[in-house]
């Protein structure tokens, strides 16, 4: 199943909202429910405006085509393999030299 970038963003946003509501409830020192509700509605309206602006910006994004994404993925995998081989070889050489020096 392929999940679009917008779906991932919406899931992250929903989790962030739930976490912030829990944090807001936990940090509210006032026992007065109207104070808590006022802070919550202010926070919700501010957050809603922020996420609407985020969605607007995401509509402007130039998403890569499947071929561009595949080429970038292959380049990253090749780069990771090259760096991994280099670090592995460096570790092998340094381990060998350290073993010789210490013994």
Word description of this protein:
The chain is an all-alpha fold and 103 residues long. The chain has two domains: 1-63, no CATH class; 65-103. The protein is built from three helices and no strands. The chain has helices spanning 5-27, 33-60, 66-102. Helix 1 packs antiparallel against helix 2 (33-60). The radius of gyration is 25 Å and the shape is elongated. The model has no long low-confidence stretch (mean pLDDT 85).
Would you spell out the secondary-structure blueprint of this structure?
Layout: H1 5-27, H2 33-60, H3 66-102
Task: Tell me how many strands there are.
Answer: 0
Multimerization state: single chain
Mean pLDDT: 85
Helix % is over 70%
**Major beta sheet summary:** none
